Amino acid sequence: MAQVGSILVVCVGNICRSPVGERLLASALPDVSVSSAGIGAVVGAPADKVMREVAEAEGVSLEGHVARQFTAEIGAAHELILVMEAGHRSEIARIAPHLSGRTMLFDQWLGGQGIPDPYRKPIEAHRAAFAQIRAAAEGWVSRLGRKRGQG
């Protein structure tokens, strides 16, 4: 896969799944600019409390995260856009059709079934989503080929 200099991770609210994906990719790909956004973002909100706790227990800090709304401009500023569900890809194509070619599923290398939203669900749903996001991130890191001894 060609070298990618910037990645945008997208979910709905930008408070559960995409912040985790962003932090995992950013820590494993130090030469890549990684950020996140939501197609229905809880603009200005920190990461979800339950997801912060789950991530922290797994050694991933979501401290300082601030949710932001996906826009065509934000999308265009990134070479690769990774979404958590097929519906998110469709929404990005609707908002910014010219970005369709750079939009892929975050779990592309795990079969592309999508990663369910754990928001307002029990902690087990958050743990399951975190595990799926971590496995999917590892797939991207191995294919982007710039893993620096982490993971």
From TrEMBL:
EC number: 3.1.3.48
Keyword vocabulary terms for this entry: Hydrolase, Protein phosphatase
SUPFAM superfamilies from the UniProt entry: Phosphotyrosine protein phosphatases I
Domain Phosphotyrosine protein phosphatase I, residue spans: 5-143
Record-stated family: Belongs to the low molecular weight phosphotyrosine protein phosphatase family.
Active-site residues, record numbering mapped to chain: 11, 17, 117
Gene3D superfamilies: 3.40.50.2300
Broad EC category: hydrolase
Gene Ontology molecular function, alphabetical: protein tyrosine phosphatase activity
Annotated organism of origin: Thioclava pacifica DSM 10166
Catalysed transformations (reactions): O-phospho-L-tyrosyl-[protein] + H2O = L-tyrosyl-[protein] + phosphate
Name assigned to this protein: protein-tyrosine-phosphatase
